[in-house]
Amino acid sequence: MPELSPEEIARANRKGAARKFFADPWIFIRGVPSMKFLPPIGPDEVAFAGRSNVGKSSLINALTAKKGLARTSNTPGRTQELNFFVQDGEYENDLPPLALVDMPGYGFAKAPKSVVDAWTELIFSYLQGRSTLRRVYVLIDSRHGLKKNDEEVLDLLDKAAVSYQLVLTKADKIKPPALVKLEAATLKAIEKRPAAFPEIVSTSSEKNWGVDDLKAAILFAIGRG
Ligand code: GTP
Ligand code: MG
Predict the structure, then answer these.
(1) pTM (predicted TM-score)
(2) Does 1 reside within a domain?
């Protein structure tokens, strides 16, 4: 067996700790159709944003190891509210340490304009104005890369100084060399963005690739990793 470097050992330890942290069972607590229904300020939150059908809900299911926790579908526009998930454990003051927030997708052209406007308003208000939102994971489909509407969301997050990290999804759908190229090009594209975390996580919810890395990144983002 090849010897591991100290960095590799530290990374493996962080992933192991993150796996353990995520292992408590996750439950759905609330669907929020508009800002006035947001849960009271409580745990740290991390949110999953991205174009319709990019794989936000699937990634939450992969992180929580619970198929069907977040509803997924081949039809864009499946998630229509901000859906909050927390762990069901014994916590100090009954306060779970982390909430995962599944968001409606943006860029879904086929929905009626009034619906798209309502979602856009909800997504933008939540992303700009939630004090417990620690990091936004902006998901990008490996087959498509960054699109104009992704850039608009990144502009908003930069302006509001909300920390975010890009996550490539559906990595099983492209060849490894193409993925490496896309990672480099995407990092280059965000290099001047002030609120962007300068690393990318590539994932496949289908194959469970990158899921432990993402868990470790999330723990780091909430100051526990
Ligand atoms: P909306 O809620 O409509 O915005 O979509 P979403 O971003 O939540 O996407 P969802 O998780 O519902 O996934 C959309 C489709 O992509 C589903 O058919 C998933 O099975 C598929 N999908 C998600 N992740 C992966 C992946 O890693 N690999 C592959 N091959 N398919 C995936
Ligand atoms: Mg969804």
Answers:
(1) 0.96
(2) no
